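Postdoc handover notes: sequence design on the structure in folder B. Input tokens:
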């Protein structure tokens, strides 16, 4: 009887199906050998054949929609890097997406680069900052006259952290939100990320739990904004496994001499490198862990633990798991794949993705799972790259320019603090004081815009009204600017930089990651019913959310501007 149960029991294993088929052949021979009524023998065989064929066939049929969606976003991912390193990747990592999935190499961000928060918000909402409200990771608060995080929410409590964060400024629903609503919150949705910005924008408003890395205390932390707070999986990792992974030194995964570019950040040739993820950053309490492979390993381990603990993809309600990885290295100052550390980050991430997909196959099953992978806006060439090849470039430091601008305005309008603040190419003026003094604010704004054109590295300067009331081709600069700002955060004058220039703050940290006129990223889809094909047409990042919504058979996010990528369904 146990043998009969095995023959007809459900299983997703191809190996088990093959064993059943062989077993059935032997079973049929055995039944025919029994001396019984010919009719009863035939009837018995028919019943066995019917039920076993039904069970085996049911296991090979893929569901009408995926039972689990795993989204992988990679900070710093570039198609040209993948192309260069493809021969060195494992067949079950990045190559699985390339060889067996759908590839869309021409996904365009038609917004200004201002950090991961607006990029992921656009990815998940199918919209742009003009509607979803996230213009950058930080913004200048006119009330407090200070730069604050777009995540700040004093009504919330941090869990494991003093940071009080939420998605309150994300004004639109995400595809994850729509999945939760459509299934009466029975879908189990989680986010695991390296940074808080990434975790909350990917988690939207309705994730059960999100988690990000505390790079000071070395543990998973979160916000009480989400229903489950810190997931039990993250809490259990914090008891020791987190520190174990974080404490491992980072050295080359293979002989550096075999790398495409054996030079290291320090310039040494073929001597390798060694980093401790727990080393402190210069003059900071935080560590370098977020820019080492340890961060990616931690994301993978927590993701696998959540899949197992929460039994994702195991019932009729589709679940969603969003993951953020990185290939950005410590002290990175070049966008090209020209240092061993960068190459090693890709090699190790390839292994993490392979490990993740192997575990998904063992649990939810790849036939039941849709996995998509994409990246954020990142520059192809940093100024250091371009200068090395005699191509015009430079760094724009706003503090010096704002001091000169304020001196210029004082010479015209008197001794006042006319420039209240600046952040991310947005200049904020003291409108209230100007109107009190009877000055024409529209005229002052235009004077400021004209004055900014005198600075080295400035391409153009626009007033708020010029940006918000612009229209025309979506590829135009003013249209791109309009897409990139919400009325709650936009400055009074907005500047743009020349090609090859990049903005840095007073501590020489990059304020944005790309100043390219158009930023392209690859999109890969794999698993479930995804065909093996390459889509060469150009699509927008806002087309990803409606594509996922179509696959999941749920409503589009409520500020969606995109259209499903129809070629996937052909």
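Designed sequence:
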């Amino acid at each position: 009887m146990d043998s009969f149960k095995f023959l007809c029991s459900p299983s997703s294993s191809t190996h088990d199906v093959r064993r059943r088929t062989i077993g059935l052949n032997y079973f049929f021979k055995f039944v025919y050998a029994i001396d019984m009524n010919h009719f009863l023998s035939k009837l018995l065989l028919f019943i066995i054949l019917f039920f076993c064929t039904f069970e085996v066939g049911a296991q090979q049929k893929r569901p009408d929609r995926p039972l689990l969606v795993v989204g992988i976003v990679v900070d710093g991912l570039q198609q040209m890097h993948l192309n260069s390193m493809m021969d060195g990747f494992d067949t079950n990592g990045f190559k699985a997406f390339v060889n067996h999935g759908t590839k869309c190499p021409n996904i365009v961000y038609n917004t200004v680069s201002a950090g991961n928060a607006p990029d992921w918000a656009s990815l998940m909402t199918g919209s742009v900052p003009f509607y979803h409200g996230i213009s950058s990771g930080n913004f200048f608060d006119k009330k407090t006259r200070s730069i604050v995080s777009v995540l700040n929410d004093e009504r919330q409590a941090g869990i494991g952290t003093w940071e009080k964060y939420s998605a309150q400024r994300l004004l639109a629903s995400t595809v994850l939100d729509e999945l939760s609503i459509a299934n009466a919150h029975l879908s189990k949705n989680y986010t695991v990320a390296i940074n808080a910005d990434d975790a909350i924008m990917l988690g939207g408003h309705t994730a059960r739990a999100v988690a990000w890395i505390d790079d000071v205390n070395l543990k998973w932390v979160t916000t009480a904004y989400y229903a489950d707070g810190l997931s039990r999986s993250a809490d259990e990792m914090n008891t020791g496994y987190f520190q174990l992974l974080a404490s491992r030194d980072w050295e080359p995964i293979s002989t550096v001499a075999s790398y495409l570019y054996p030079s290291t950040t320090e310039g040494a040739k073929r001597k390798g490198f060694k980093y401790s993820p727990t080393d402190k950053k210069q003059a900071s309490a935080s560590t370098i862990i977020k820019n080492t492979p340890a961060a990616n390993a931690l994301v993978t381990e927590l993701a696998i633990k959540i899949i197992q603990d929460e039994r994702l993809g195991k019932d009729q309600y589709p679940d969603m798991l969003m993951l953020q990885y990185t290939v950005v290295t410590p002290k990175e100052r070049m966008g090209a794949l020209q240092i061993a550390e960068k190459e090693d980050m890709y090699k190790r991430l390839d292994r993490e993705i392979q490990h993740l997909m192997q575990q998904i196959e063992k649990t939810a099953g790849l036939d039941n799972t849709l996995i998509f992978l994409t990246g954020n806006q990142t520059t192809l060439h940093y100024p250091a790259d371009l200068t090395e090849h005699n191509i015009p470039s430079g760094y724009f430091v706003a503090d010096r320019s704002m001091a000169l601008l304020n001196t210029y305005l004082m010479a015209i309008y008197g001794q006042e603090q006319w420039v209240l603040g600046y952040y991310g190419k947005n200049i904020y003026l003291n409108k209230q004081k100007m109107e009190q003094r009877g000055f024409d604010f529209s005229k002052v704004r235009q004077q400021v815009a004209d004055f900014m054109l005198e600075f080295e590295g400035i391409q153009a300067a626009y007033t708020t009204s010029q940006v918000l009331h612009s229209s025309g081709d979506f590829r135009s600069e003013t249209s791109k600017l309009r897409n990139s700002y919400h009325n709650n955060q936009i400055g009074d004058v907005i500047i743009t930089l020349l090609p090859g220039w990049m903005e840095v703050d007073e501590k020489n940290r990059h304020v944005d990651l790309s100043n390219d006129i158009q930023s392209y990223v690859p999109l890969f889809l794999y698993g479930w019913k995804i065909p093996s094909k390459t889509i060469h047409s150009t699509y927008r990042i806002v087309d990803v959310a409606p594509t996922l919504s179509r696959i999941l058979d749920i409503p589009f996010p409520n500020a969606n501007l995109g259209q499903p990528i129809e070629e996937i369904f052909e």
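Context for whoever picks this up: The longest helix spans residues 38-60. Don't rerun without checking with the PI first.
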